[in-house]
Write a structure and sequence with these properties.
- The chain is globular.
- The chain has about 450 residues and is α/β, with parallel strands linked by helices.
- Mean pLDDT is about 75; it is low at about 1-15, about 50-75, about 100-105, about 140-145, about 295-305 and about 305-335.
- The protein has 17 helices and 13 strands.
- Helix 7 (about 185-190) packs across helix 8 (about 210-215), helix 8 packs across helix 10 and helix 12 runs parallel beside helix 17.
- The strands form 2 sheets. A 9-stranded mixed β-sheet has the order 10-9-8-7-6-5-11-12-13.
């Protein structure tokens, strides 16, 4: 067990206090150091940080150290003795992360970017057989009127992407299963070791043979179901979509496919979201994932974000914690994936920073006019995102958790204030903080225990 550095604790006004079942976690973001504290240990710690904190330290220790000194009289040596006493009495446990260098403190920019993205979200078609009210595709945010490319052309594009080092593909749309002629292309990608995920509304999976073809072609399947109540689901996704999606879920499970249910957060499914989870898990889903509203329903996001934050905090079996706080092997946590680990490609071959930045001003280049290597290394749009100094984002610069979230999703910031350098807003900020603190609590417990 590592003894906590007193200089760290003496400078931790930014310490995050995270409640745990058997005490508290104290986490210092810039040094990425965590201390697990019993309730009594926290009591002593607070008295040191805040001399005016009202409370009495009971003489529950093996010596009279605390009886002889007031908190304000503690010297650095006294504080070392205090910390050692707390550790020796099992009132504190500690784990160390990577301490940030002095050069990192004043500027949160990236001196380099990965040689290639890890993942590509491929909007293989703009066509869809549903008209979801919240869909960004219905807001004319990508190349809606472009001609779709042939299977041979897409095969060449995927081959170039693989050669560039991209190993994960999210096949989406529109509705990607309207292009069943591309299933052999996906099967070939999968056979070559790529991770190929299908994001579908499920309405075109109508028999066991359909499910079998999907099993051959994809490594993961994400099926859209917004509610366990047909009328609520169909209000947003279209009449009859609930029955078709439910039937698809049963066929996927019958075929032995491990699929994930995806719901879009709606005002009507906020309350019964646990019921939606239980329903889809009952259909055979291995996970339940929730996305925030987008497109035409963006005005409802602030309400949704608050409830979604509470939902993330309480859900233990759902795959909602997409931010990592693995502070033992990285000092920044996970930044927004746009322009670093992810790109998006629309049906015409246009490249974008991510799947949520599909507007015309975010176009980075076209794969039928240029190479992915040239676009990745020379796009001014990608460079703009990579060169953001997160310390200069209003609303973020004074936050003690900035090093772990780096300002959050840039697409949300762009939607919120029409700037890639903007603030994601209070409600999204609260959501990110809650998810980060939950991850810190879980990781510290795993590392200590």
């Amino acid at each position: 067990m590592n003894i906590c550095d007193s200089s760290l604790l003496q400078s931790c006004r930014d310490t995050q206090f995270i409640f745990d079942t058997d005490g508290w976690l104290l986490f210092h973001p810039s040094s990425q150091h965590a201390v697990k504290v019993s309730n009594l240990g926290l009591h002593v710690f607070l008295r040191f940080l805040y001399p005016d904190f009202v409370g009495i330290v009971k003489s529950e220790w093996q010596n009279n150290f605390f009886d002889s000194l007031s908190v304000k009289e503690l010297t650095p040596d006294d504080f070392d003795t205090l910390i050692n006493t707390l550790f020796s009495g099992s009132f504190l446990q500690s784990c160390h992360g990577t301490t940030a260098s002095s050069n990192d403190v004043n500027s949160l920019t990236f001196s380099s970017f990965p040689p290639n993205p890890k993942r590509a979200a491929v909007h293989i078609s703009t066509r869809c057989n549903l008209q979801c009210t919240y869909c960004y595709n219905s807001s004319d945010r990508n190349s809606m009127n472009s001609d779709e490319h042939s299977a041979a052309e897409w095969e060449k594009v995927f081959s170039d992407l693989i050669s560039f080092g991209i190993s994960e593909f999210d096949i989406t749309g529109g509705e990607p299963l309207l292009r069943k002629d591309l299933l052999p292309v996906y099967k070939s990608l999968k056979s070559g070791g790529a991770k190929v995920s299908l994001l579908t509304n499920g309405t075109l999976i109508n028999c066991i043979d359909d499910a079998a073809l999907i099993k051959e072609s994809f490594t993961d399947v994400y099926l859209s179901i917004d509610s366990h109540i047909a009328s609520v689901n169909d209000r947003y996704r279209g009449n009859g979509s609930y029955a078709l999606a439910t039937n698809a879920a049963k066929l996927l499970s019958l075929c032995g496919i491990e699929w994930t249910a995806k719901a879009v957060f709606q005002p009507d499914n906020v309350g019964p979201l646990y019921d939606v989870r239980d329903y889809v898990l009952g259909l055979g889903a291995k996970k339940f994932d929730v996305s925030l509203l987008s497109g035409q329903c963006a005005d409802d996001l602030s309400m949704a974000a608050v409830v979604y934050a509470l939902y993330c905090e309480r859900m233990s079996n759902a795959s909602l914690e997409k931010l990592s706080a693995d502070f033992n092997d990285r000092k920044f946590g996970n930044p927004c994936a746009a322009a670093r680990s992810e790109i998006a490609i629309d049906a015409s071959g246009e490249v974008y920073p991510c799947r949520s930045l599909l507007s015309s001003e975010m176009r980075c280049g076209n794969l039928y006019d240029s190479t992915i290597s040239f676009i990745w290394n020379n796009s001014s749009v990608l460079a703009q995102i990579r060169n953001i100094d997160f310390n200069n984002i209003n609303g973020c610069k004074k936050c003690s958790l900035l090093r772990l979230c780096l300002g959050g999703c840039r697409a949300i910031a762009y939607q919120n204030c029409n700037s890639l350098n903007g603030y994601i807003g209070h409600y999204y900020c609260a959501l990110y903080k809650r998810r980060i603190l939950n991850n810190i609590r879980k990781m510290v417990n795993r590392q200590i225990l």
